[in-house]
Structure formats: C-alpha cells, structure tokens
Structures
1.
Amino acid sequence: MLSVKSNVFVNCASGLLLLFSPLAAAQKTASESPLAGADIGAMLLALIVVLAVIIILASIVKRFNLKLQGNADMKVLSAMSLGTKERLMIVEVAGQKLLLGVTAERIDCLKELPDSVELKGQQKP
C-alpha cells in the first residue's frame, strides 16, 4: 500500500514539474501565442490605420480652423506678438472693442477702443 501511495506521489510530482518547466512553457506558448505571424501583421496594420485617421482629422481641424469651443459674443479681431510670451490683442466682446495686453502671467485691458476704430482688412457688415 505504501508503494502505491509513493507511486501516485511520484507521478503527480513529475506531472507538476513537467507542467511548470520552462521548456514545456516555451513549447506551449510558441504554438498558442496570440502574437503569431499573421496576428502581428494585422495588429500593425490596425495601428497604422488608427494613426492615419488621427493625423487626417488633425489636419482637417487645422486647415478649416475648426474650433471645438467658441462663443459668438467674443471675437479676436487682431493680434500682434511682442515677444515669445507677450502679445497685444484687439478683441470684440458684446459689441465693444478692447485692446488687451497678454503675457504668460496675466491679461490686462489697456484701453477701450471706440466703435469708430476700424482695422485694416476688416470688412463692414
């Protein structure tokens, strides 16, 4: 009876050793790998398609100057760069034109412009 129990123990131990051995694992993963030849090609093709769609959509947004957020009551009429992080801007808010000084730290209203002020290249409605 002791020999039967030890035989069962040896068979279980050898089965577990075979199951967890690196060679068995390597053979098993090589045949059942989710990244086998054709799968890698399909994955790369899908990645290229997704990247192409992202680039095309970004170029469309840039070309047509689409703004995801906008307000009909506010318009930037003109902007002039004074340095790397400083600029002068003329904006129209609720029908009133404002000259703004914009820096990295703050935005200051420098002057309220009269409605009679016209900018070059601006068309009258």
2.
Amino acid sequence: MRTLHLQRDVPLKTTGQAFLAASLRVSGWLLVNAMIALGVLALAVLAIGSFSIEGAMHHLANLASRYIVAGPDRQHQFDLILLWSAALVFVAAGIFRRHSLMRALFEETSHD
C-alpha cells in the first residue's frame, strides 16, 4: 500500500487543493459504483421481463399491485431485500474497482 508523503514546506493552500481534488475523485468513484448498482438492478428487471420493455413493465405492474395490497411487514421485507441487493452489487463493484479507488486517493497531480 502506498502512502501519501506531504512535504513540510508545502503551503496550506496546495494541501487543501490536493484534498479537494482527491475528494472529487472519490465522489466520482462512488457515483460510478452507484450507477453500476442501479444498472445491474435494471438489467435484472429486464431479465425478468424476457429482455423486453413490454415484459419488464408487465412484471413491474404486477409487482406494484402486489406491493400495494401487502401488509406493512411484507412491504418492509421487500424493501430490505431490494436494499440489500443494491448494497451487495455496490460492494461487489467496489471490490472490482478497488485499484481505481487507491489511484484516486493517492494520485498526485502536477500543477503546471
């Protein structure tokens, strides 16, 4: 694991700019992982609908009608399943993209 070495004579403004640049890169990394998770869930919906928009909409309408009439306990159970699935895909994407996270955290940019 690489460490970030800061020079003692570096002005605070440069250090602050480096922190802001790193935080922008990390927020971009998080957003890409969230988009991957949403894309995988959308692909799962399409797969349930036989990879057609019409089939996916039919199954979503069926799911929505059953969700509305279900009790609060069953709705909560479905919500947890959906959230855990999205979290699992997010974490899996993060594991596969961990090297780009390290590069985003410890990359030093040149200020010409």
3.
Amino acid sequence: MTLEAELPLSAEAIAEVLSLLPLLESGQSLYRMHDVPSLDPYVYSPALFRWLTVVGRGPFPLRFDWPQWLDQAKALDADPALIAQADLPTLRKLLTTYLRTERFTSGTLARIIEHGQLLAILQRLKALNPET
C-alpha cells in the first residue's frame, strides 16, 4: 500500500506552496496584531490569507494523525538545521501540523513566520524542487 506522503506532487501544487517564498524572503510583513483586544489577535495579510486558503485546500497537506506526530514536529521546530535536511514527506507533515495547529492555537503561523520555520520549510522545498 502506498502512503499518501509517498505520492508525487504536481509541479503546480509545489508552485502554490512556494508562491509565498518571495514575500518571506523580502521580509514583508505578513501579519499584524489587532488594535483592540480580540479572541484572535492576529490579522493575516491578504497574501498570507490567500496562501493559507489555497495551500490548505490543495494536495500538499497530508491526512495523518498529526497530534501523534507533535513530538517530531517540536524537534524540527526547535532546530532549523533539521528542516534544512528534511525530505518531502517530512516537510508535508510539518506544514500540515502547523496548518492544523493554527486552527486551534491562533498565532501559530505568525510564530513560525517570526522565528523563520516557514521560510526554512519553503527554502527546503525549493531546494528539493529546483525546477519550480
């Protein structure tokens, strides 16, 4: 049986994920905090919101038991050098975990932007797919 993580992704699917890379590399602000107290204090830029919508609904995220994978995600999160060596299935699991966690913990994406994990994931994805 072939695992979903082992199935190839189209160049278009990878390009959708990588579409945010130029904005991250430019240092452009992709989020801000609400001016007034709010249950969800993060306001994501239109570009980031579009990216979340497209990537979240596309083929890149995996269907797997991501809460059971949190220990591995935390290890990668703590050490960007591990992200720089990750294979495609690991990048897909890590990004899926971040996307799912954002649903329950507002600001997860702001944190991984601020601390460089999202940039590291997209740079590694680009290195694994130089033709995109």
